[in-house]
Amino acid sequence: MRIINYLFTTTFWVTSTQLFAQDKQNEIIAVWDTGERKVEIHKVGERYIGNPVNPEGERNPEIEVLNLEYKEGKWAGKIYSKKRGRLLDVECQIEGDKLLLEVTARFISLDLEWTRVD
């Protein structure tokens, strides 16, 4: 009986841990205000894609400004820099209703903060 309790407890713990991790990585799915425009982040397969949102609230799937993957408790990937006209490395974390982005271009990094809209 002790073995059955142990197996049940272990299975429950592993399953609940995986469900919590899934919720954590999907919390980035939202509309974010960048200060200049709004970006909707949604999941496509295992990637998190960010597209700009027009004033009517519709996502523009033709333009991809973010392409992220969830690894080791944070999102990492590429962000499009309109100013530089190219893709840069980015790492993101969520704190409350803020999305904190660390953008890196070679040896220079810039911290950005986006606010959750929905």
List the SSEs and their pairings.
Elements: H1 2-26, E1 30-33, E2 38-44, E3 47-53, E4 66-71, E5 74-81, E6 86-95, E7 98-105, E8 108-116
Antiparallel strand pairs: 1-2, 1-8, 2-3, 3-4, 4-5, 5-6, 6-7, 7-8
What can you see in these coordinates?
By secondary structure, the chain is α+β, with helices and mostly antiparallel strands. The protein has one domain: Lipocalin (Beta Barrel). Helices cover 21% and strands 50% of the residues. An eight-stranded antiparallel barrel has the order 1-2-3-4-5-6-7-8. The longest helix has 25 residues, at 2-26. The protein starts with a helix and ends with a strand.
- Counting DSSP H or I runs of 4 or more residues, the number of helices is 1
What name does CATH use for the topology?
Lipocalin
Share of residues in strands: over 45%
Corresponding CATH architecture: Beta Barrel
Order of helices and strands: HEEEEEEEE
Query: If you compute it from the alpha carbons, what radius of gyration comes out, rounded to the nearest whole angstrom?
Result: 18 Å
